[in-house]
Write a structure and sequence with these properties.
With 316 residues, the protein is an all-alpha fold. The protein is built from 12 helices and no strands. The chain folds into 2 domains: 2-72, no CATH class; 87-307, MetI-like (MetI-like fold). Helix 8 (174-207) crosses helix 10. The longest helix has 38 residues, at 223-260.
Length: 316
């Protein structure tokens, strides 16, 4: 297991380099000049050129990337052009906020999808099954920005159950933090709920026809024990892979959801930085997202070994 983890960690390094290089090149294809954004539209060409030289933006792109990479290897992701603070500081200030939202969204998707998937499989082709399938289709087809606006209109404007947006830290006001968290977490996790629900249902339908399930029933075990002890454990194994992918999807989804609900995380930071042509911040956020995605997939592979003793990484 240790050798397998070491090889996987080694594989992360070249992938991170490729992601950082492609991101750096694509960012610089965005029209606009950070110096002009910083100085304003009325800035003279001479002032813009002077600031470009000061920021090193007048150098060839490959030279800029190599300089950035050299600093990044020492833990320095550069200086934010707009915020005038280190990129690592800007990300560190907002990362806990995004992690809170992402964790609750992922937890919500699992808590809702697993019981509904089991329920739909247990009552196949019944009204319950049809309702679950319809809900999964709606959740996977409605874009998050549409669902977010609908939630704000219904639950914040019309019913006034929760505030339309904003963020209060948990240590300042736990109750208000929870009220602020409800809508963005549900909107962010809705697509994951739909995917997980269909996956659990399909896995359960396949497993419920296995011989060991018929044997468990023949022994007189209760329906609940058969479903949740014998069938569900094996049905969750394929779900692990999807959850690993969803970590990256949820991080990407925060870009839109945080902007809609005024959530001050790295998603809204990335949107603001893209609009302001703040290259170092965008580069840092994308690199962090890529590393988080690869780490999540590594943890999923390790989790397989604990959930299924038949899986061994000794020969991998």
């Amino acid at each position: 297991m240790a050798a397998y983890i070491a090889r996987r960690v080694t594989f992360i390094v070249p992938v991170a380099l490729v992601v950082s290089f492609l991101t750096f090149m694509l960012i610089h294809l965005i029209p606009g000049d950070p110096a002009r954004v910083l100085l304003g539209e009325e800035a003279t060409p001479q002032n813009v050129a002077a600031l470009d030289k000061q920021l090193g933006l007048n150098q060839p792109i490959t030279t800029q990337y190599l300089q950035w990479l050299g600093h990044a290897l020492h833990g320095n992701l550069g200086q934010s052009i707009i915020l005038q603070q280190p990129v690592t500081t800007a990300i560190a200030q907002r990362l806990p906020v995004t992690l809170e939202l992402g964790f609750v969204a992922l937890l919500f998707s699992l808590v809702v999808s697993i019981p509904l998937g089991v329920l739909a499989a247990s009552f196949r082709n019944s009204p319950i099954d049809y309702i679950v399938n319809v809900l999964s289709i709606i959740g996977s087809t409605v874009p998050s920005f549409v669902l977010g606006l609908v939630f704000i209109l219904v639950f914040a404007v019309l019913l006034k159950f929760v505030p339309p947006g904003g963020y209060v830290p948990f240590n300042q006001d736990p109750a208000q933090n929870l009220r602020d968290l409800i809508m963005p977490a549900i909107v962010l996790g809705s697509a994951a709920v739909s995917i997980n629900m269909r996956q659990v249902r399909a896995n359960m339908l396949e497993i419920l026809h296995q011989d060991y399930i018929r044997t468990a029933r023949a022994k007189g075990l209760t329906r609940r024990r058969v479903l949740f002890v014998h069938a569900l454990r094996n049905a969750l194994l394929p779900l692990l892979t999807i959850v690993g992918i969803q970590v990256g999807a949820i991080l990407g989804g925060t870009f839109i959801v945080e902007s809609i609900f005024l959530w001050p995380g790295i998603g809204s930071l990335a949107i603001q930085s893209i609009l302001a042509k703040d290259y170092p911040v965008v580069q840092g956020v994308v690199l962090l997202s890529a590393l988080a995605y690869m780490t999540a997939n590594l943890l999923v592979d390790i989790g397989y070994g604990f959930l299924d003793p038949r899986i061994s990484y000794a020969s991998h």
